[in-house]
Every structure is written in C-alpha cells, then in structure tokens.
Amino acid sequence: MQQTLPPGIERVLISADEIDAAVRRMAAEIARDYAGSPLVLLGVLKGACFVTVDLARALAETPGAPTDVALDFIAVSSYGNAQRSSGEVRLVQDTSHAIEGKHVLIVEDIVDNGHTLHYLQAMLKARQPASVRTAVLLDKPYRRVIDVTVDYVGVTCPDEFVVGYGLDYQERFRTLPYVAKLRPELLS
Ligand code: PRP
Asked: Could you tell me the distance, in angstroms and rounded to a whole number, from the CA of residue 173 to the centre of ligand 1?
C-alpha cells in the first residue's frame, strides 16, 4: 500500500520495520556481550530519544540480556539548526548519575563526521567508568572527519540528509516512525 508522506518528505529510506529489526539485532549483540553485567544505557539527546528507549525495551525482551539496566541521558549539540556540524560540540545537559566504575553504553541515533561521538567518548572515559562502548542506529562511515570506535551499528545510512526516528531538520520531523529523505528544496 502506498504510504502518504508528510509535506517536505521525499521518500522513506529505512522503514519502521527495518528500524525495529536493526534495534533487535543490536540488542541481541549487546545481550551476548554484556551477559550478566550491570549496564548504563546512555542516550544522547535529542536525536537518540527513540532508539534509546526502543533498545532498552528490546534488551528487556532478549533472553540472557543484563537485567540490571539503568537508563540515563546526556544532551549535546553540534548542529543547532544548521545542516552541517560546526565541529564544536556543546554539552547541553549532563548525566543524572555518576558513571565512575559503571559499564556505559552510549546510544546515538547517527554518527556522521564523528565529532559528537569523539567528544562524548573522551569526556566519559575521563570519568573512569568500567567500560565505554557505543551503539549507533545509523552510521555514515564514509563521512568521518575524525576516527571514532562504534561497537554496534544498526544500519549503514545512505548518503542523504535524513530525518525521522529522532533526527530533525530545524526541529521538525523527529517524530516520524521511519527514517526519510528530506526534499532537497527544503534545505536552506
Ligand atoms: C546529531 C546526532 C548526533 C550528531 C552526529 O545531533 O544526534 O549526536 O548530530 O553528528 P556528527 O557525527 O557529525 O558529530 P545534533 O547536534 O543535530 O543534536 P540533536 O540530537 O539534538 O538533534
């Protein structure tokens, strides 16, 4: 059945079902790697709001996954309302609990040039956690400006300006249940 798309959206690139499958596959990998260890899922706001919660739920439904899972959020911004990252990452809101001695899994919606993740990984590692790993729903490895380690990847993202499932353009389109390509004429 043809889906009616909101104005401004050209086409769906990654459907809700494909996102769900990717999140569940990541949850299975995370469950296997962390087994019985307590874990802090650290979602990076705002973009990773949906993937963090969906990953937490998928983990809870995955046999053998850690049962001691804390959920925390951190907010950073490097894009603001711009299309391109400034490369200058700004901490908007810190974690609500200390991470010293904890196994921390950063959850991101997308890694593009890598500046945001590089900043976060360095900042968090300096706080002496037991470990820091990263799970990313959408990876654009061909766009890296700075090398970062990504431990769990949902989908390699097409080379388009994408919105939906947490990703915005000027704060719009975050709540779409899929990842979509924006109509190029909207990009200013
Ligand atoms: C987006 C996204 C990542 C970052 C990735 O955040 O959520 O955190 O950009 O880009 P990079 O790899 O090029 O650094 P943004 O700064 O747009 O803030 P938001 O999540 O609040 O939309």
From this structure: 14
Buried-exposed string 49-85: b where 16+ CB fall within 10 A, e elsewhere: bbbbbbbbebbeebeebbeebbebbbbbbbbeeeeeb
DSSP 164: B
Determine the residue of 78, 111, 123 to mutate for testing ligand 1's pocket, defined as the one with the most ligand atoms within 8 A of the Cβ atom: 78
pLDDT in tens, 84-133: 666 789 999 999 999 999 999 999 999 999 999 999 999 999 999 999 99
Residue whose CA lies nearest to ligand 1 atom number 10: 112
Question: What are 33-38's contacts with CB under 8 Å, separation 24+?
Answer: 33/133, 34/65, 34/66, 34/103, 34/105, 35/64, 35/66, 36/66, 37/66, 37/68, 37/103, 38/66, 38/68, 38/69, 38/70, 38/102, 38/103
CA dist., res. 100 & res. 76, Å (int): 20
Residue 187 near residue 161, CB atoms below 8 Å? yes
User: 72 an active-site residue?
Assistant: no
Answer whether 54 contacts ligand 1 (Cβ < 6 A).
no
- What predicted TM-score, i.e. pTM, was given to this entire model? 0.95
**Do residues 22 and 53 touch, judged by C-beta distance below 8 A?**
no
Q: Among 20, 112, 147, 159, which one carries the catalytic annotation?
A: 112
